[in-house]
């Protein structure tokens, strides 16, 4: 069973090809890091996978169900959130709570379990004490942390993270990677993460996709070498 | 003044507008569409001119026109995603040009009506308009209560909202249409030139005062009400246009709050520096 299946994907911005020949699968419990030089269309690939862009050729499928037969929940942390720059009038708590809405809470009140999940998510990134602060008053690193807390509050089956550790210190990054590894191994979450810290992340993830410029391709067009297996996941979820 | 029927209707209209303006205004600001209200008001004027030209109740041609433009705005926002203000500029000037063109085709007899729509008039508010406002407010409050969570997620970030499974395109169009209809209905009262100010200013003021999202809307209601009521009384006493008077009062409130907040910040910094030194 897969959560993400990419088959011979190619993507062109107008007529200019930027991605070609991309194929891989992400299964429950997989923690894949996606790397590549600056401008290697990593975010473009992510946006194709999430349906925000349409592949020019090839196919992307997201599984409609998770491994327990329920609706697949996707948690996405984009590289930049525009609202953060304009002093979004919201408290940290309100924002992180909004991560729970997609779990069938669009029209219902959050219950005890939801609130507990929000508390755990905020504690896991060390932001519980700042829950009543206005989002616009936070530093860049703190904003990044609450984006992560929000996705943890959602408790999705599939995490899609686009350079989520920008502005975080080494210790916080390590803790975050450990937490993700725990989620993939113990709870069967699928994780696809764009990063530049491949040396640091290597010991936590089990697969590596690198977007590279191959010979014979147009100058801005990237492809992938292979989906390298770094380790076998030690799955312990049921 | 309170014994006059037209003033009673104007006060009722003010109460209703105070309820809906902060809700729509906050979403407009956060979607970076503050000028959309202005665009729709300009286009509204074209709707009014069309109604007067073909001798149909201008309110209906107005509503029809803003619905079409609200949908077109969303399409153009997607087309000029990076420079979304381009769509606003094009439609605003296009709407104004169409209004002037239609007015010139219908010379004789329409100047007074057009002036009323341009600058607003409290004297002409009919009971029918007040009932329409009640209905509109009922719909907006219900929609807000039902969809506030989805709207919050959408205005925070449209891409994460999409991945969370929200139909963002449909929601955007419906929001634009609702804003357009609201503008078309309140325009004869406050005037096309300043209708956007009545929507945007209260939310802009309450954003400076509140920390949380829900309190921003709650604080916005008394702010709008204060501005609307004091504006109406001033307008009655001095014979000034109601839209302009209300806007000037709200701008003054915004200026006072900004100055006070600035002073409070300076005072706080000085106090903490003094504490450190001692």
UniProtKB/TrEMBL annotation, chain A:
Keywords on record: ATP-binding, Nucleotide-binding, Transport
Pfam families noted in UniProt: ABC_tran
Source organism, top-level taxon: Bacteria
GO terms for MF: ATP binding; ATP hydrolysis activity
Transmembrane parts of this sequence: none
ABC transporter domain boundaries: 4-238
Family annotation (InterPro entries): AAA+_ATPase, ABC_transporter-like_ATP-bd, ABC_transporter-like_CS, Metal_Ion_Import_ABC, P-loop_NTPase
Keyword ATP-binding found: yes
PANTHER family in the record: HIGH-AFFINITY ZINC UPTAKE SYSTEM ATP-BINDING PROTEIN ZNUC, METAL TRANSPORT SYSTEM ATP-BINDING PROTEIN TM_0124-RELATED
Protein name: Zinc transport system ATP-binding protein
The species this protein was found in: Terribacillus saccharophilus
TrEMBL record, chain B:
Sequence intervals crossing the membrane: 12-30, 86-105, 117-147, 173-201, 213-236, 242-260
UniProt-listed GO biological process terms: response to zinc ion; transmembrane transport
Its membrane topology: Multi-pass membrane protein
Cleaved signal peptide residues: none
InterPro entries: ABC_BtuC-like, ABC_TroCD
Family to which the UniProt record says this protein belongs: Belongs to the ABC-3 integral membrane protein family.
A single cellular component GO annotation: ATP-binding cassette (ABC) transporter complex
Protein's name in the database: Zinc transport system permease protein
Alphabetical list of Pfam families matching this protein: ABC-3
Chief place where the protein resides: membrane
Superkingdom, natural source: Bacteria
Subcellular location: Cell membrane; Membrane
Keywords from the UniProt entry: Membrane, Transmembrane, Transmembrane helix, Transport
């Amino acid at each position: 069973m897969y959560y993400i299946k990419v088959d011979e994907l190619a993507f062109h911005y107008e007529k200019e090809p930027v991605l070609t020949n991309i194929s891989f699968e992400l299964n429950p419990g997989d923690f894949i890091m996606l790397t590549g030089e600056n401008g290697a269309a990593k975010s473009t690939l992510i946006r194709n996978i999430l349906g925000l862009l349409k592949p020019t050729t090839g196919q992307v499928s997201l599984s409609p169900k998770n491994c327990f037969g329920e609706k697949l929940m996707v948690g996405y942390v984009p590289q930049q959130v525009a609202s953060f720059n304009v002093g979004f009038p919201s408290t940290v708590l309100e924002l992180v709570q909004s991560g729970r809405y997609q779990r069938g809470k669009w029209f219902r009140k959050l219950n005890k379990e939801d609130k507990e999940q929000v508390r755990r998510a905020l504690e896991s990134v060390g932001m519980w004490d700042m829950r009543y602060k206005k989002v616009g008053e936070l530093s860049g690193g703190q904003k990044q942390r609450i984006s992560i807390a929000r996705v943890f509050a959602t408790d999705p089956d599939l995490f899609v993270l686009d350079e989520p550790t920008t502005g975080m210190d080494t210790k916080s990054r390590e803790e975050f990677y450990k937490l993700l590894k725990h989620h993939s191994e113990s709870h069967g979450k699928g994780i696809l993460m764009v990063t530049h810290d491949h040396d640091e992340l290597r010991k936590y993830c089990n697969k590596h996709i690198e977007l590279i410029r191959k010979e014979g391709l147009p100058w801005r067009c990237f492809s992938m070498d292979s989906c390298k297996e770094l380790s076998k996941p030690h799955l312990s979820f049921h | 003044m309170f014994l006059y029927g037209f003033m009673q209707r104007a006060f009722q209209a003010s109460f209703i507008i105070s309820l809906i303006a902060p809700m729509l205004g906050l979403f407009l600001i956060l979607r970076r569409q503050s000028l959309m209200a202005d665009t729709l008001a300009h286009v509204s004027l074209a709707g009014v001119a069309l109604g007067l030209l073909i001798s149909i109740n201008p309110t209906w041609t107005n509503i029809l026109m803003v619905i079409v433009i609200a949908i077109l705005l969303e399409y153009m926002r997607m087309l000029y995603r990076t420079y979304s203000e381009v769509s606003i500029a094009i439609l605003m000037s296009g709407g104004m040009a169409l209004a002037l063109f239609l007015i010139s085709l219908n010379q004789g007899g329409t100047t007074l009506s057009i002036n009323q729509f341009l600058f607003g008039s409290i004297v002409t508010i009919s009971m029918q308009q007040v009932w329409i406002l009640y209905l509109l407010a009922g719909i907006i409050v219900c929609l807000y209560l039902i969809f506030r969570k989805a709207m919050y997620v959408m205005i925070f970030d449209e891409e994460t909202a999409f991945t969370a499974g929200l139909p963002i395109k449909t929601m955007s169009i419906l929001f634009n249409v609702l804003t357009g209809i609201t503008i078309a209905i309140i325009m004869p009262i406050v005037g096309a030139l300043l209708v956007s100010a009545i929507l945007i200013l209260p939310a802009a003021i309450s954003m400076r005062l509140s920390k949380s999202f829900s309190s921003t809307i709650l604080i916005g209601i008394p702010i709008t009400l204060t501005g609307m009521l004091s504006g109406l009384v001033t307008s009655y006493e001095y014979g000034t246009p109601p839209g302009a008077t209300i806007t000037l009062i709200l701008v003054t409130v915004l200026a006072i709050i900004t100055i006070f907040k600035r002073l409070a910040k300076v005072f706080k910094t000085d106090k903490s520096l003094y504490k450190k030194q001692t």
